[in-house]
Amino acid sequence: MFFRKIMKQNMTQEPIVYQTGTYVKLINKAEYCKSIIADGKELIVTGNESGELIVPELKAPKVYITFKEGITNFSDVFLGCIKLTSVPANLFANHPNATSFSGAFFGCMSLKSIPAGLFANNRKVTDFYSTFFGCTSLAAIPENLFAKCSEVTTFSTTFHACDALTSIPENLFANCPEVTDFDDTFSSCRTLTSIPEKLFANNPEVISFNATFVICSTLESIPEKLFANNPKVTDFESTFRFTALTSIPENLFANCPAVTNFGGTFSKCKALIAVPKGLFVHNPKVTDFEQTFEGCSALTAIPEKLFANNPEVTNFSLTFHGCSALTTIPENLFANNSAVTTFSETFYDCTALIAIPENLFANNLAVTSFNFTFYGCKALTSIPANLFDNNRKVTDFAYTFYGCKALTGESPYTMIDGQKVHLYERANYPEQFTAPENSDRCFYGCTGLTDYSQIPTDWL
Q1: How does pLDDT run across 74-101, given as a tens digit for each residue?
Q2: Residue 157 three-state SS
Q3: What is the pLDDT of residue 390?
Q4: Partners of residue 17 on adjacent β-strands
Q5: Is 60 exceeded by the pLDDT of residue 412?
Q6: Is this structure's pTM higher than 0.85?
Q7: CB-based contacts of 117: which residues, under 8 Å, 6+ apart?
Q8: Lowest mean pLDDT segment, chosen from 6-10, 130-134, 137-141, 345-349
């Protein structure tokens, strides 16, 4: 009698719809459920069921699920329910104290739409981590989906790999003022073509946009005021990596003075042809530019004062790695970056680079590593003799000029008391230089150097 009463009650509710067929997973967390009715049968028998519930065969697409009273955590509730196609707007309406929907619809590959009022009665939610992760059939997001969720703090990976998503409603996060991170929120949304300018306008507490739009491979432009109201952001690592950007607005980061990390921000943006000179002017606290423009193979030039207002930078590893159209480097590019300790792979495989300015590293006295810095720069014909004169703390010159086969002239040296001291001779002058600890193949293949025969084998 009790279960019949539940069945009658549930049949009056809106159903959840699944594709019919064999071995259909209806739920991933049966312990949350008071009742599940499929094909007219009650599947919650003891009330102690837990984990995933799979039916050998589902004949009718409509399934009726009622959750137990008092549930506050709906994490992973429908995780991996790949045949779920739609859910009713009132699915969670009787659970006003719910705080987490982390992974709730993770991997629901057949879910085609989300009702606008799905979370309308869940005002205490703080966590939407991976909620719709991998919902590859989801083509649109209701603008008011999170309108009543003012206490949310994370939207990390919420819509990751929603491959059918082409646009984002401008007011999607307008009523979520407490959010602190949008890490990977729209990562791998491969058909997303645009971003509304005011998408993050009401999210002043955000500190991280790490990989937010990474691998949005059809995204070609960014609104200039996208981050205008996010003054607390510290992390833009990989934010637009692997996108189709052709340009970057000069004032994109103008209101983000707290940023410390631009690692990989525009990495692999292969259509990017130029970088605005004032892009980082308002970001004085940056310490990391690792991979920032790595793989930007259409980039032909670098503004001379690009890093002029970033005195705290310590890392320029791989910054322009693989920028194969780059022909020159401005002499004062790193002039105001006295705290840098590594230029590892900075210009690795810049195959069109024809020259290095002699004062490029003149103000970088703290550098300890130049490993792979000009690796594979096959168009490079000479090295300024005094290129490393002021870089006397360097311990790592491994592979620095590896494969630079067009080099001619003498390898770099510093004049000490009227004597030429080449890189490979620095260990003999302990009062002047820190002895290099790693010199493997520094000049490998550089047979055109006039002192090639004098270079020790451990440098070749």
Answers
A1: 999 999 999 999 999 999 999 999 999 9
A2: coil
A3: 98
A4: 62, 86
A5: yes
A6: yes
A7: 89, 90, 93, 144
A8: 6-10
Q: What is the pLDDT of residues 230-258, one digit of tens each?
A: 999 999 999 999 999 999 999 999 999 99
Q: How far apart are the first and last CA of the chain?
A: 86
Instruction: Determine which helix (DSSP H) or strand (DSSP E) holds 9, and give its type and residue range.
Output: helix 2-11
Amino acid 12: pLDDT: 52
The answer to whether 230 and 256 are in contact (CB under 8 A) is yes
* Average confidence (pLDDT) over 24-29: 98
Range 94-113 average pLDDT? 98
Q: What are phi and psi of 294, to 5 degrees?
A: -60, 130
Dist CA 244 CA 221 (whole Å) = 8
Tokens standing for residue 449: 């150097």
Give pLDDT, residue 364: 98
CB 125 within 8 A of CB 119: yes
Query: Would you say 173 and 144 are in contact if contact means Cβ atoms under 8 Å apart?
Result: no
Question: Would you state the pLDDT for residue 13?
Answer: 73
Question: What number of residues does the chain have?
Answer: 460
Residues with Cβ < 8 Å from 419, sequence gap 6 or more?
none
The residue written with tokens 């790595």 in the block is 294
Q: Which residues lie closer than 8 Å to 78 by C-beta, 6 or more apart?
A: 27, 28, 84, 104, 105, 106, 108
Q: Is pLDDT of 5 > 50?
A: no
DSSP letter at 3 equals H
Distances in whole angstroms, Cα of residue 340 to Cα of each of 34, 286, 317, 334, 435: 60, 11, 10, 9, 19
Please write down the HEC assignment for all residues of 33-65.
EEEEEECCEECCCCCCCCCCEEEEEECCCEEEE
CA angle 42, 87, 17 (to 5 degrees): 55
Question: What is the per-residue pLDDT for 459?
Answer: 98
Rounded (5°) CA angle 375-376-377: 95
13-40 exposure pattern, b = at least 16 Cβ within 10 A, e = fewer = eebbbbeeeeebbbbbbbebbebbbbee
> String of b and e for 328-346 (b: at least 16 CB within 10 Å)?
ebeebbbbebebbbbbbbb
Give the span between the Cα atoms of 316 and 336, in whole angstroms: 13
Pairing of strands 413-416, 84-86: unpaired
Confidence (pLDDT) at 6: 46
Taking residue 90's Cβ as centre, other Cβ atoms within 10 Å add up to 14
User: Which position has the token pair 């691998």?
Assistant: 215
- Look at residue 7 and give its three-state secondary structure: helix
Nearest to 150 by CA among 127, 175, 180: 175
Q: Say how many C-beta atoms besides its own lie within 10 A of residue 243's C-beta.
A: 25
Closest CA to 78 of 27, 34, 38: 27
